C-alpha cells in the first residue's frame, strides 16, 4: 500500500512539473504584429438597407499586414475585437482566421467589419467626415489567439491591434462625388 502511494505521488509530481514546463514554453510565444498595409489603404463601402440593417450600413475593410515574430510557425486562430472610429465604438469583430504563418512570415489579410446606420447617432461626426472625404481615425482593439502546436494555444490581449485612418468612401460605393 505504501509503495502504491509513493508511486502515485511521484507520478503526480512528474505530471505537475511537465505541465509547469509547458506553461513556461507558452511564455516563449510572442504575439503576432498587426500594421495597416502600406500599399492598401482601408476602404469604406456603403451597403443598402436590408432586413438585418433597415437603415443600411457600411463595410470597412482594413488591409492588415500580419507578422509572426517567432522563430517557429503557428496558426493565427482567432481575432475578437472592437472597432473605434474617432474614439467612438463602431463595430464588434469576431473572426475565426486559421491563417498559418511560418517563422518570421508576413501576410496581408483583409479584416471586414460592418457598421449599421442605426448606430449613427453615436457616429454622426464620423459620418459627416467620411461624406466630406476627410480622414477618419480608426483603432481596432482586441485579443488574438494562436495555435503554436506543442507550445500551446495562447491568447494575447486585450491590446490595440491596429491603428490608421480611413480616407473617404471607395469608388463605386453608391455615393456620388
Describe it for me?
With about 180 residues, the protein is an alpha+beta fold. The chain folds into 2 domains: about 30 residues; about 140 residues, Immunoglobulin-like. The protein contains 2 helices and 8 strands, in the order αββββββαββ. The strands form 2 sheets. Strands 1, 2, 3 and 6 form a 4-stranded antiparallel β-sheet that branches. It starts with a helix and ends in a 10-residue tail after the last strand.
What's the CATH class of the largest domain, please? Mainly Beta
What is the CATH architecture annotation of the largest domain?
Answer: Sandwich
Give the count of helical stretches: 2
Radius of gyration: 22 Å
CATH topology of the largest domain: Immunoglobulin-like
Largest sheet: 4 strands, antiparallel
Helicity level: 10-25%
Order of helices and strands: HEEEEEEHEE
Helix and strand arrangement:
Elements: H1 2-26, E1 33-36, E2 43-47, E3 57-67, E4 74-85, E5 88-101, E6 106-116, H2 124-131, E7 135-147, E8 155-167
Give the tags.
elongated; 177 residues; Immunoglobulin-like; disordered C terminus; 4-stranded antiparallel β-sheet; single chain; 2 domains; alpha+beta
Structure at a glance:
The chain has two domains: about 30 residues; about 140 residues, Immunoglobulin-like.
Amino acid at each position: 500500500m505504501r509503495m502504491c502511494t509513493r508511486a502515485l505521488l511521484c507520478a503526480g509530481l512528474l505530471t505537475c512539473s511537465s505541465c509547469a514546463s509547458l506553461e513556461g514554453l507558452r511564455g516563449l510565444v510572442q504575439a503576432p504584429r498587426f500594421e495597416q498595409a502600406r500599399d492598401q489603404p482601408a476602404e469604406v463601402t456603403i451597403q443598402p438597407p436590408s432586413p438585418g440593417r433597415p437603415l443600411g450600413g457600411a463595410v470597412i475593410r482594413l488591409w492588415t499586414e500580419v507578422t509572426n515574430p517567432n522563430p517557429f510557425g503557428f496558426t493565427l486562430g482567432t481575432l475578437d475585437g472592437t472597432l473605434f472610429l474617432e474614439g467612438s465604438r463602431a463595430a464588434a469583430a469576431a473572426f475565426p482566421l486559421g491563417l498559418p504563418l511560418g517563422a518570421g512570415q508576413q501576410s496581408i489579410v483583409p479584416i471586414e467589419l460592418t457598421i449599421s446606420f442605426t448606430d449613427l447617432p453615436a457616429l454622426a461626426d464620423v459620418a459627416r467626415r467620411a461624406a466630406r472625404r476627410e480622414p477618419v481615425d480608426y483603432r481596432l482593439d482586441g485579443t488574438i489567439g494562436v495555435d503554436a502546436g506543442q507550445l500551446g494555444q495562447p491568447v494575447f490581449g486585450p491590446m490595440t491591434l491596429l491603428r490608421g485612418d480611413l480616407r473617404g468612401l471607395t469608388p463605386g460605393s453608391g455615393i456620388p462625388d
